[in-house]
Design brief:
The structure holds two protein chains of two kinds. Chain A is mainly beta. In chain A, 8% of the residues lie in helices and 43% in strands. In chain A, the strands form eight sheets. In chain A, strands 1, 2, 3, 4, 5, 6, 9, 10, 21, 22, 23 and 24 form a twelve-stranded mixed sheet that branches. In chain A, strands 11, 12, 13, 14, 19, 20, 31 and 32 form an eight-stranded mixed sheet that branches. Chain A has a two-stranded antiparallel sheet with strand order 7-8. The N and C termini of chain B lie far apart (142 Å). Chain B contains no helices and seven strands. The chains are: A mainly beta, B mainly beta.
Chain lengths: 627, 129
Amino acid sequence: MPAGLPYFAWIDASETTFGSEHMRWDESVFSFELSQEEGDPASLTAVVRRPRNVAGGAIGLLGPGRKIWVWFALDCGPALVKFRGRLVGIPTSIFEELVTLEFVARPFDVVAQKEALAATLRVLPFYDEAVIDKARRNDPEVVLEGYTKVWHYDRETHLLTVSDEITGEDGLVEFDGASEGGKVLYDGLGLTLTSGPLSRVDVAAEFTWTQQARGTVDLTRYLTSHWPGAGGHFIPGLKAGDWPKYGTGLGDGWDVAGSTAAELVDFSTTTSSASGGITLEDTDDTSSSIQWSWSRTTVNAAGVMTVDKTIGDNSYSAQFDDGGGTASVSRSYSESSTVLGLQNISATLVAGYTAERQCTERVSLTLFADVQPILTDPEDGEALRIDDIRSVNLSDPEEGTPIGDPRRRSYIATERGNQSIEHLVALARTHLMKRARVVEIAFAPKLSRMPEITLRRSAFLAEPRVGEALGKIIRYSIALDGSDGRVDCQVSIGCTIGRGGVAVATAGLPSYCSIDYVGFDYQQFVERTVLINAFIDSSVGYEPPAANPNDDGIDFLSNLTGQDVIDTDLVVEYGPEPGVDSSGGQWAEYDVRAKFKLKSMTREFSTDYVIQVTDLKIPPGYDLEAV
Amino acid sequence: MGFEVVVRPVVFPNIRPAPARSLPPQDDPTKGFAQIRGNGATTVGLSYSYSASASSSQKVEDKRRVDVARVYQQDKDKTVNKENFVDIEVANKIWMKSGAQKEQWKLEPVKEEKNIEIKEKDKIREAQK
């Protein structure tokens, strides 16, 4: 068949494969235009002679039972340009002799295909679920935010894919300007600058999590070593009952998880007593007797002082009975006293904590595009600011706990956190790459080359008027005007105006210790640049930040000591507190007031990180400076 | 200085999670202290007492029974001078008591001798009160 001949076959929806049986003329095509733009399904506008039945009556194109699917093909010589689509809308000019039909190659299951495809694209760093609201995660359109890709609808198979906006994944179509097929028509060539490129993208993001931890810290050593006069072994001046009991609050998020207190000074008393007597009986049956007794109560503690003494009895008596031959004397004495001593205790105190601390890491980066200037002053241009990025609660189990361990002090310095940084870079890169496709060149290839044209390919054009250009095919059309029989082919490519090159990774300097000692993963570096592996073009690198949390220094991943959790050191005061009724009563001078402050378990912290990134290397699709 | 224009993308509004609650002011340094209060003063009551007594008792005479004897002067040559004598009472029995207890002491009665003459026998004498 001659090149330029169109075929038009009404088909059932099930006829998804083009065969020779479809090379027929169910309608008389007067003219048509087959076109497709980046991100949209292909469309076909066909002007056909109004269908009539055998009797010459008009046939309703939208009548029930009529087929609405069509295989359209255009013989381009070496191959066919094929299109499978379905009739959409009401045909225009339906009362004229020529009827315009609109077809679109949009899959009927586009929603299902998009969702299925989107599911495969939800991968880091292009898509970071941690910064997407849960309610929007099922939206397939959100997936492409970090990709330099758009949806692509195959005009024959209706298979939905994504296609890169910078480099076509299905290869290159070359128009070298020299070979017969590589030449383009003189007419139809055009070059436009769509807009100025973005000079940079400023990204600011907040990553938040609730630092959660539960545990205990033994404060015993801290308290005994800091308590005045304790000597490191005991707590002076307190009774066991004074010591904090289990469950007593110790500050924000703190309570007593365990405590013991044993009084060291024995204030028990011992009562001793003795009594005796002697009776002397003389040979003349006379007798004399002496009786005595005493009782003493003593305290077992040493170092007490007597503060009160009362003599209860101190008496003498003597009786003589001359007539009866008897005589007696007696002496009695009693006293009571009060002694005062200070109790010391041997105590332990284990503090329990329940941390619920809101942590925020504010990450910012600026990605500059390494592009050719198209304005007078290279600094003139447009900067994009993306500052609305916020994360979910990174320690929320319902979100998968992106931070891994909720006890962590830093998210952004973790491997997962680095992926979030890479996602931010991906967002910035996407905007810069897309906006770097400033030059749009339209040209008219020969019909024979049109079967090669798809929106998943790039095209190279060498043409004396524009020089050389390499860009992604963003639009094409084939049109037949029935009035003159001409077939017009148009292809447009979008060319980036980068300078090319690749970002270079640098090993950096280990700042922790030797790499051999701890391994590369655990090491911390300065001036280290890593490339984001997901970007196969090595277009950008960044310096992974070292964790430098602006918090109170508590590392819940370590074994905490008292010194680690003390916010304000122990202060011990003695004597009555001014203006407060003393618990010590008349012995108020021995009141003890100790206080210390543990680091809050409910505080909130915020740390700023400025991420260093390399300039974004952008392919040199077109050299503006050479024009 | 260039004529830079800063724009914000309006691509996917409302896809971000709700903002975290705003950060509160810094930790109040006057709050959140752990306090341990007490008083180790301990008082103890002590006592001391003693007593001593001494008593003595001896038997006292209640009454006695005496013989009255006259003792004359007797010289070395055994001559008795009847002009010179003394009368003495010699107890031959004494009643002693100590409280309710009573006892009797029996003594050897005085015997007449050349110079001793019994004048009265068994005369009862009550003890002086």
